[in-house]
Amino acid sequence: MKVGELTHREVDEDEPMVRLITHIFLEGEGGRYQGAGVMKRALVELQAYGYRMLCRPDDGISRDDGSHLTQDAPRFFARMESRGLVGRFG
Q1: Is beta strand 87-88 parallel, antiparallel or unpaired with respect to 52-55?
Q2: What is the pLDDT of residues 70-86, one digit of tens each?
Q3: Torsion angle defined by CA atoms of residues 13, 16, 18 and 20, in that order, rounded to the nearest 10 degrees
Q4: Three-state SS sequence of the chain
């Protein structure tokens, strides 16, 4: 059963552990896992493995790679950034 997804890509071949989040959602199962800390936990685990996760700023630009922010993403990433789990790209 798939309830969500977090995908990311390398942004600098010289620093493969720095990743840009391109898609993140948790709408499966009618959204019953939203707000339960699932994606926060995923970011904690990625950080524990040495990854530095980045997200785009909320600038209203739609990007082909999916890395633009929609729906609850601006608020979610602001919280994650304040906790040191993501940084801003660009």
Answers
A1: parallel
A2: 888 999 999 999 999 99
A3: 70
A4: CCCCEEEEEECCCCCCCEEEEEEEECCCHHHCCCCCCHHHHHHHHHHHCCCEEEECCCCCCCCCCCCCCCCCHHHHHHHHHHCCCCEECC
DSSP-assigned beta bridge partners for residue 82: none
Widest pairwise Cα distance in the chain: 40
The residue behind tokens 């898609």 is 23
CA distance 16 to 1: 30
Instruction: Please indicate, yes or no, whether the overall pTM of this predicted structure exceeds 0.85.
Output: yes
Kindly report each contact of residues 23-26 with a partner whose C-beta sits within 8 Å and lies 24 or more positions away, as own/partner: 23/66, 24/73, 24/76
- What's the full length of the chain, in residues? 90
Place of tokens 């906790």: 83
